[in-house]
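Now for a sample.
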Amino acid sequence: MTELRLSEVVLRTTVYDRLCDFYSLLLAQPRSVEMTPPPSDDPDEPSRICFFNYYFDLPYTQRIAIFECKDIGSGPTSKGLHHFQLRTPTIEALVDLYGVLKDRGELPEETSNHGPGTSFYYRDPDGNKIELSALNFSCREDMQKFMATDEFKNNPNGFPLDPERLVAGRRSGRDLSEMIWER
């Protein structure tokens, strides 16, 4: 089985600056990356995003992300946990895990290339969102360079991917690290 490691915890808040200041103090570091995505009518989409990157040992990373959501309501869009991320060591391992889960009747509700990583989103039996992810870059500098671009800052959601296309590519010997950039 693929070795999974906790990679990211994403918190939803209406007190964005206070929460960011708290985690900056707790982690003894400044905010690593901040962005303001384009406005959305979806209450689950953040109006501001902050990342605190505190561990990087390829292919694994660890970070805390804070999403400012103005209309948090109740239920799945409440304060607190937005989702958590588990990292696979490679894109190939992510696609293989997709196959294992699919064979058990578990399908992702969303798949996308966010730029820094490729992610498949699932819901556990209690409805918690789980992001299974693999890094798209082989070094920290390249990832940080991409995250500083307007392309990423204006569209942190990236673009959707078809997991079945990736499975077929893997079976035919295609390079998945190239396929994930094809739209």
User: Anything to note?
Assistant: The first helix runs from residue 16 to 27. The chain is about 30% helix and 30% strand. The mean pLDDT is 88. The first strand starts at residue 5 and ends at 13.
